[in-house]
Every structure is written in C-alpha cells, then in structure tokens.
TrEMBL record:
GO terms for molecular function: ATP binding; hydrolase activity; urea carboxylase activity. InterPro entries: CT_C_D, Cyclophilin-like_dom_sf, PxpB. The lineage of its organism: Bacteria, Pseudomonadati, Pseudomonadota, Alphaproteobacteria, Rhodobacterales. This is Urea carboxylase. It comes from the Bacteria. Pfam families: CT_C_D. The keyword ATP-binding applies.
Amino acid sequence: MTRRPETQSQRPDDPLFDVPQIAALGIDGLLVRFRAGESMEANRAALALRAALEADPITGVQETSGALASVYLRFDPAMDVREAILSALRERLAAADWARAPLPQGRRLWHVPASFEGGDAPDLGAIADAAGIAPEEAVAQICAAPVRALALGFAPGQAYFGMLPARWDIPRRAALVPAVPRGAIVLAVRQLIVFAATAPTGWHQIGRSAFQPFRPSRGDETFAFRAGDELRLHPVGGAELREIEADDPGGMGGARAEPIA
C-alpha cells in the first residue's frame, strides 16, 4: 500500500508519519519529513527518496540534500515552479513505500582501526558506567556490527552513524568540550561520529582513529563517507594506531572500503 503525502497524524505503533509531510522552507525550498525524530525506517526512506530525486530530477529542482529523516529540495524562487514541483513531488511520494525502498546504490562498508585506550578515549569509562557495563565490553559492543551513515553534516565530510542498540541512548554533555581532534570517535544518542576536523563538541569521545573523512586534496574523493555507507570500527592499541598514523600520511589511517552488495 502506498502512502499519500501531507497529513499531520502519526500512529503510536508506527515510527513513521502516516504519510510523509511536505513543508515550505523559506521562499526557495521544500522539506519532506518522514518522521519528527530519528528511526532507521525514516532514514531509509530519506536516503531512498533523495537517491531517486538525484537519479530522475524533478524539473525546476536545483539541489537536494538529506538529513536523518528528511529531504530538502531547493528551487529558484524567481521561477514559477513551486506548484509544479509540489505536484510532481506528491506523485513521487505516493508511488512507493519509501520506508521499504532499496538503499542507494554504490554504498560501501568502511573498516576503520581505532584506539580505545588512555588519552584517545577520555570519556569511555563514563559512557561505560552510564551503560552499566565494563569499558572492555562497551568497546566490544560498539564495534560488534556496522552502523549506517544516516546523514552528513556539522562539518565537511562528517557523517552521523547509527543506530546503536538502545543502551547507547546516552545524552550529550551539559557543557561543550573545547575541542576533540580530527579522527576522534564520539558517541551520543545512539550515534557515532568520526570527527572530520578538530572542533568543539557536546558528544563523548570514546576513541580515536587516524582516518581523515575530509580530504580536500583528493578532488572527487574529498568526502570519504557518503550517506548510506556503513562503518565498522576495529580496536587497535594506542601504540599501533600511532604506527599506522606514521606510516600513512595520506589520511587513510589504515581504513579500507569494500562495496556493499
């Protein structure tokens, strides 16, 4: 059964809106939302819709971008295209069950070595306590399975990976940390980030990699991660990570990517 767009209700037993919502965003944009918060189903819908719009653009749409559970479409407000775009968008939304649509093609599984020792993981003990387990078990659980790049944002090439099991629904800090290093592995609200640049954060640093997600010298490969990619962290010792870093000045940090069938 297909979903027709633009209703405001939400079933309590369904993580998605009964139908996708379309809202105006400024004078030159439309926002399609599949859920008010995050869920893997809503993220799949957002990824699939954006991929479909990129593969077969709606006339008049100049740009699309994706978030955790929504897709943004930008158009030229000087052109009389808004109503035509709305009509075409409603047709697209009604034509498929986006929460069950295939994920974008060309996705990759990234294997990234990371240290969870000492100064590389200043908040590991605290988040393990919050989860009620030992730090070693916390690392084992976090590294046990791949997590999906739900969206990119905050900094160039920086991906939000999730969703971790419910025990990792740990809130952000009450106060900002002045800076975590590029490559830091941080955690909050069931998500992981590999920091693309040194930056302040309200998230918890639980590890560090030598991987650089943002590589401006690589042209078409400036952004390593794409929305829909997956990440698997592999624990290594702090000394081993530093050896990897010294042997790999190009910023891969021992990471490798393989296609997802």
